[in-house]
Amino acid sequence: LLYQGTATIPAHGVSTIRPRNLLGFDCAGSAAIVSDQLLAGTCQITRNSNKMCMSYNAIDHGSNQLYYPDFTDTFNPDGWRSLFVLQNPSGFPANLNIEIRSRAGDLLYQGTATIPAHGVNTIRPRNLIGFDSAGSASIISDRLIIGTCQINRNNNEMCMSYTASD
To answer: How far apart are CA 57 and CA 12, in angstroms?
Structure first.
């Protein structure tokens, strides 16, 4: 736990939270925000040089099954690298079964991983498969988890992300 606190958003208002400002130091991790009112939220990630940014929607529920419908992961400097970012919001470890397939449907990888309680796990498909690839993935968990796919141009000039489907 890096921070725990409260804040108020006025009726019909908007609030922006920068984790670094709350903590006072650079950080990486996950967040859970609970409210007595309905909320809508996004995470906006901007490179400090302002040359690229991405965003994804905040999720109000987890799933035991996450689907990543498309990724590309290469070492080519003009290509793309993909990261599956998974959050385990529960107080217990989440055990994962991972399947990665090519765009043609061929099985490229099948294996397991664990996310610690309240932790985050980042999976780079190329590191699991061992070679450049493009395709889709499904992740089954024994706990409710949340996931995004973050896709970066290898030359760091462009990026995008999406929320995994459940």
So the answer is: 19
Among the residue ranges 34-48, 101-115, 116-130, 143-157, the one predicted with the least confidence is 34-48
Among 63, 64, 65, 83, which Cα is nearest to 73's?
A: 83
pTM comes to: 0.79
Q: Indicate the SS3 state at residue 127.
A: helix
The residues pairing with 160 across neighbouring beta strands, listed in sequence order, are 151
| 48 DSSP assignment | T
- Contact status, residue 53 vs residue 151, Cβ threshold 8 Å: no
Rounded to whole angstroms, how far apart are CA atoms 81 and 125?
A: 9
- How far is 78 from 92, CA to CA, in rounded Å? 40
162 vs 99, which has greater pLDDT? 99
Residue 149: strand pairing partners: 84, 162
- pLDDT for 10 equals 82
Residue 25 amino acid letter: F
Helix (H) or strand (E) holding 15: none
> What is the model's pLDDT at position 158?
79
